[in-house]
Amino acid sequence: MARRRKGTPVHGWVILDKPLGMGSTQAVAAVRRIFDAQKAGHAGTLDPMATGILAIALGEATKTVPYAMDADKVYRFTAQWGESRDSDDAEGKVTGASPVRPSEAEILAMLPRFTGTLNQVPPAYSAVRVAGERAYDLAREGEDVVLAPRPVEVFEARLLAARPDSADFEILCGKGTYVRSWVRDIALALGTLGHVTALRRAALGPFEEKDAVALDTLTPLRHSPAAFGYLKPLATALDGIPALAVSGPDTVRIRSGNPILIRAALFARLQEELDGDELQGQVVYLKDEAALPVALAEIAGGELRPFRVFNFSNP
Known about the structure:
By secondary structure, this protein is of the alpha+beta class. 20% of the residues lie in helices and 33% in strands. It has eight helices and 19 strands. The protein has helices spanning 24-35, 65-69, 104-110, 135-140, 179-189, 215-218, 248-255, 264-273; strands at 12-18, 40-42, 50-58, 73-81, 83-85, 94-97, 116-120, 129-130, 133-134, 150-162, 166-173, 194-204, 207-208, 213-214, 243-245, 260-261, 283-287, 293-300, 303-309. The strands form four sheets. Strands 1, 2, 3, 4, 7, 10, 11, 12, 13 and 14 form a ten-stranded mixed beta sheet that branches. A five-stranded mixed beta sheet has the order 15-17-18-19-16. A two-stranded antiparallel ribbon has the order 5-6. β2 (40-42) and β3 (50-58) form a beta hairpin. The chain is globular.
């Protein structure tokens, strides 16, 4: 007999405003305990020194984590000029100093060079894997970590405030962008050194600061029905993916992991939902007639082929 999983089947997203000093793993564990959830994960790590949106998936929502991780993000942060750190943030050891302090005009003139597609080297203290191990684990063991540059997208970059020794910024960026690397690199381009002293994730895809709840607010609600007022539907992370309702035998087949033929009526609905886009290879979010999640499916070979089926039955 299979061992019963601890906790209760809870499905959905909790958008936590992660507090300063807490690691992402700790935050996920805390939320999981509050909801007594069987399963939990998150869509993108925030370092202990960072605050802001940590999107935590419970239960079947963990199957939608990749879509939240791929979403664009907004960060607000402070760059400290004149000093480099081995971690590129305030928690690292000092590795260099510079007397140069960029002016507001110099920073503004440099921003276009740090917007668009950038070839960025991740920080040594990052979650990037090197020969199967996390870079930060190797760096903490004293190894010299050399990471390859990779293309990232910074769609917008704004200077919010400039002071003699520091500056505040906001960027809208794509997946894989490291704020610490961005600050390190713009500092070097400005003829100085720099590192991050404060960092906040202000948006993650469809999740914004107005959606976030503080851990201090959730903690007193542990195992209480009131906590579920902060649980967002599984489909929240699928914003932008075409949604389609299925019914009857089609729903049964999809829930069993089997494909369904795209018959004429279904083809017409898909064309309408996709607004004339090429159907082949498109991912579609399927729900039943009661709007309950059924699966994520790919259009291929004249069929809808499920690759993530949502199971809400108790173990």
